[in-house]
Amino acid sequence: MRIKAPIKIDRKTKNLAKRLTTGDIAVINHRDIDEVAANSLVETKIKAVINADTSISGRYPNKGPEILSKKNILILDNVGKEVFESLKEGDILEIVDNNIYLQDKLIGSGEILDENKIQEKLKACHENLSNELDNFIDNTIEYAKKEKGFILGDLEMPHIKTKFMDKHALVVVRGQNYKEDLSTIISYIEEVKPVLIGVDGGADALLEFGYTPDMIVGDMDSVSDKCLKQCKEIVVHAYPDGRAPGLKRVNDLGLNATVFPAPGTSEDIAMLIAYENGAQLIVALGTHSNMIDFLEKGRKGMASTFLVRLKIGSKLIDAKGVSMLYQSRLKIKYIWGLMIAALFPILIVAYLSPPIQQLIKLMEIKMRLLLEF
Fold first, then answer.
1. Fewer C-beta neighbours within 10 Å, C or N terminus of the chain?
2. From which residue to which does any coiled coil extend (predicted)?
């Protein structure tokens, strides 16, 4: 196999996906390529992925490499950090089998992950899953004890301008199938008019569907400048000690933001903000709720998420995967029915029209004359 194309390179796959164009080679340093990252690469229609790290480490069955392979995107795996650091954006690379050439000079090699190799590695992942689950449970319990103040009132809630009292709140996270799920609940958004909260890149998903987020919550590492400028309120998720790296980006854009120091994930505090400010119902879309979700985010437990969901209780509806429940298909019989229904009033109006009546009579006369001959 031989592929020659310009590269785009970044340590963060989600940032790289924004710059990729059709035919590029993506150069990443991403251990255990997750589903969301893989889908973002697929959408750009690239030719190949060169990964400095291991795309499937064996810890858990991550779906990213399988998604790329099914879209016929070559994966050259584990080429090493030395190759990654030697490259720069715009370099023209040539991949020949498992070797990488820059200006006809061999600079490195890796392992080609074809479908068979991926399935072999995923099988080993499934065999290791029970060990990973054991560690995940222990970590969750340990941190739940430390973070229980998260739901016991020890956390000082920031002052929020957005009005939640007795309203529905929709929290959109850039998680698995988030775009498909969002398109499925459009009618709900149109009818109920919930408060729209975008968690980092989830805010851009709302913008893509024509909705301006009422609030953006997160560390501001994946939301676009355009979305930040258009949204109505920004809440920067800070570390518990008050450090808020994302605040600088917001201020550099000339925007104001509320800082919320808290443990846990940004989606946790987004739901907590809605709950504490009197939301009647909280609909979560694209959120992370199981072990694989959290391992893909690089988290070894889910203490804060467990605690927040425990507190919110019946007010929370998880819409993740709702697009799988019902997939509407337009059937031929419905099209024929619609055409007949539309044609029926036209025929009635035409029949009652004097010019049409005269035309019909004229045709009847011509038919009689033809029959007589």
1. C
2. none
Q: Which spans in the chain are helix H?
A: 13-16, 35-43, 64-70, 81-86, 115-146, 178-184, 186-192, 202-208, 225-230, 245-252, 266-276, 291-296, 303-312, 332-352, 354-372
Q: Which residues contact 281 (CB under 8 A, 6 or more apart)?
A: 168, 169, 315, 317
pLDDT band at 311 (very low <50, low <70, confident <90, very high): confident
3-state secondary structure 46-88: CCEEEECCCCCCCCCCCCHHHHHHHCCCEEEECCCHHHHHHCC
Q: Which residues contact 163 (CB under 8 A, 6 or more apart)?
A: 195, 277
Find the helix packing angle between 303-312 and 266-276, rounded to 10°.
20
Closest CA to 3 of 48, 34, 44, 58: 48
User: Does 82 score more than 90 pLDDT?
Assistant: yes
Class of domain 2-120: alpha beta
**Higher model confidence: residue 199 or residue 320?**
199
Residue with tokens 């903000």: 273
Structural tokens at position 307 = 């605690």
Q: List Cβ neighbours of 44 (8 Å cut-off, separation of 6 or more).
A: 17, 20, 21, 22, 24, 26
Helix/strand/coil for 92: strand
What percent of the chain has a predicted confidence (pLDDT) above 90?
Answer: 54
pLDDT tier for residue 274 given thresholds of 50, 70 and 90: very high
Contact 54, 32 (CB under 8 A): yes
- C-alpha distances in angstroms, 319 versus 96, 269, 360? 45, 18, 58
Average the pLDDT over 169-192 and give the result: 89
Two structure tokens written together for 147: 């973070």
Closest to 108 measured CA to CA, from 65, 50, 55: 50
Residue ranges per structural domain of the chain: 2-120, 148-324, 332-372
